[in-house]
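Supplementary material to the annual report.
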Amino acid sequence: MTEMKYLIVGDSAAGVGCIEGIRAADRGGEVTVVSAEARGCYSRPLISYRLSGKVDDAGMSFRGEDFFRENGVTLLEGREAVRLDPEGRSLMLKDGGVLPYDRLLWAAGSSPAVPPIPGLERVTNRTPFHSWDDEERLEAMLTPGARVLILGGGLVGIKCAEALTKKDVRVCVAEGLPRILAAVLDDEAAAMAQAHMERAGVAFRVGDAVASFDESRAVFRSGAEEKFGVLVLAAGVRPNISVLKTAGAACSRGVLIDAAGRTSLPGVWAAGDCAEGTDCSTGKSAVMALWPNARLQGEAAGRSMAGAEAGFSDAIPVNATSVLGFPFATAGAQEGESRVLRGRGAYKRLFYGGGRLTGYIMAGDAAKAGIYTALIRRREPLDGLDLSLVCAEPSLLAFTAQRRDELLNHVETEAV
Amino acid sequence: MPINYILPEFEVRRDYDRCICCRVCERQCANLVHRYDEDAGKMLSDESKCVDCQRCVTLCPTRALKILKNENSFRENGNWSARTMTEIYRQADTGGVLLSSMGNPSEMPVYWDRILINASQVTNPSIDPLREPMETRTYLGAHPSEMRRDAEGRLITSLPPHLELDVPIMFSAMSYGSISYNAHESLARAAAELGTFYNTGEGGLHEDFYKYGPNTIVQVASGRFGVHKAYLEAGAAIEIKMGQGAKPGIGGHLPGKKIVGDISRTRMIPEGSDAISPAPHHDIYSIEDLRQLVYSLKAATEYKKPVIVKIAAVHNIAAIASGVARSGADIIAIDGFRGGTGAAPSRIRDNVGIPIELALAAVDQRLRDEGIRDRVSLVAGGSIRSSADAVKAIALGADAVYIGTAALLALGCHLCRSCHAGKCNWGIATQEPELAKRLNPDIGYARLVNLVTAWNREIKEMMGGMGINSIEALRGNRLMLRGVGLTEKELEVLGIKHAGE
Amino acid sequence: MYVNEKWCLGCHLCEYNCAFAESGLSDMVKALKGRAIRPRIRVEERGNVHYAVSCRHCGDPVCVKGCLTGALAVKDGAVTVDRKRCVGCLTCVALCPYGAISPSEDGPMQKCELCLETAAGTPACAAGCPNGAIVYEER
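Predicted assembly:
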């Protein structure tokens, strides 16, 4: 019997998760990873920490140097996949190489979107902030006292701004939507985060979209202007699915997958920022481009590819970070009925529906947020809990003693 | 505002250099003595509420606490002690009967401490307990007075029912209600593991403990709380409580607020009603009545279980015991005046009853004189504080001893003598679930097993030292004891010689 | 590490013993006097309910999977944090179903690591619990 040939496109969180999932079920099969970048498996969210100097080159990797070798994986770096033949089960690379496979995982992630703003092409010192290469490019553009304009007040833009406060530059964040971190926080929490960053010296222009650029100036719809020396494009990402789309896979915003990561093409799985699964907190299809999700989707896909029982059926978006010392965490849905609690410099909003907790926003204090995350993922019915206790503070007190005993005293094999 | 005459008995001394404000003392004091003061940034203590239970001292992780006697002193007086004066102030305040818990603490003679044990030398060598068999097993019950043979000449070996003890130490009666469920569980499990017995006291037997029945002595007291057919059948023996060393002449008292839930159900009385046991059994007004009850209980349990009669050590104890021995009882338990209690009027506890040492010796001698010593076994209780006390008790005539206070000390009691308040910080003499929780039976029962095992080893050491290798040979062996500093009369009652003789 | 809520008295000695063990000092007074402690085990309580929560050292830990830097890893059966790697992103905090991870005083995340590296040698919380509420054993 010939060994199974596994082929993984992409070596970030989803790719690595897939390797771990495959190897947990199949120690023998041949695993090959092909990656367009040539930096090993580095953690993309860490580029802002590298920019600020908190993390060095060695710290960028999230699985040691020996990871691929120890897991019997062949790594092909700096090679881009351009065409997929699902019937013939082969992948064509840009340099002409052809890789046959039995099972393939598409974990090619996403690419920065270029907003169609007139005059953008005239800006010479411009860069996205998505990859390690982008980070080095940005660093090279910075000069003492430079004015940096960040286009986009989402997570990427905000983390970039945070890192730049450690440099001798002036930072301004421009966001066309009415609030920063629009996909992650609500109005009040976003306002708190913005105020915190303003106190640290970051300037903001929010609710005003850029109408046009010239070489060193952005003109906003309102007529206001912002001068800059360096422009960072952090205006969103597009899932890298053109290859799969051409091959005939069912796609929406991302390539559609089931709980085990299978696409509509036989023998092809997908995971990570390019994939679109079901957000179990809303029941809707969504691309959940978040590190833990990519890792868990990748692992489920890997196990499924190796023929083991797998299913990541409790996927919800989970976001957590701390910006200039201001922590926040969110998970699940941000729609439907909610309850707000404020106190001691913190803001908390809990969303519920159908007798369950469906989402939360915690800003200013994110302690023990994981307890809320687990309530959402486990679909724990609220009528078995004390709701006022659930709202007051994330703790296991809300459960009955019996349920708590189950949670704390049974032997843990599965974390969730 | 009336004057507060009752001054704090104790002082809480905290070494502030050591205190780390962990607040464990605050959380663990049921009397709310300690609290953390935010403004001062340190712990403060209200000593007026302290009962010196030592819970905070024991748990403090940096040993920053001490409880001291309040040095505030009244003028010295050989007749009027501070305690006596304070008791009068209290009665002038409340008009009530003073209540106390645990055993008589007064400075009366402790005869155990005036009795010395023999050791063998030269003429009669001692026995090495590590290398030679040493029997601490003992049997409680009536012994036949003569050997009898049947028509074929074979020995008739049928005996009345006995209790078999692997060690000559049993846990004495402490009722469910005066002590907690967890305390009972600890006693039951320890008794089972040690091969001895514990006693339900007058609170009945909780259904969860029926499984320890073979190691349980069920008590029938004057209030007959919790007494029904299944109860009698559950135990290995039945004890009729005629009196208790701590409060001879009166019955037990458990206040209504402690009669809740399981306590109420087990005692078979309504919740909230005071459980007052009458002084006499209202169906026992003569020795013949006692005999009738003894035989009713035997009949109810098909003559399969020995019946114990527990009497308090009082003036005519010898005559009383003689009557009891003739009433059909298999075992007589004598409870001395130092015995403990959950609650008793202070004057009765401290002034009524006689020392167990004297009572035991008197009873043993009287029964021998009347030729009926073998009709019953004797169990002595009322402050057996160590294996040495136990050995002395056996040498004075006991077949086994009952320990109560010592068992509670093993469970964590610090003899603060506040049981009647129901706020035992060690989880023993309380029914408040938050406090009873503090006694984890897994820990408690292991400590009891340790205590009795240790005493058993010491008993073997002492017996070996005397050249004796079984409890039987020690029992009543007065020649193994000598008194020191005792009067002629005391020596005579104890039936022992003076050291040197 | 298992917790018997039935026997927990809410005395908080586990928290102080944890903080002391982690301090690396030999005298508790020197280690903890005048400091607000940040123990890796926390008592949750309300009214008469008390119990202590610390890292469960899950067999399949979701915090390790979600860690951006690979700072969280399983070592000798315990889930541990590489303090030099951790950037304080809080992802693990938002994933741990027990709320067992929290920031340390100087930034990187901290959690129970079974006293594998402390002077105590064996979990100090379990050893110091006065009522057998915390149990450290294989099940």
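Chain C has a mean pLDDT of 92.
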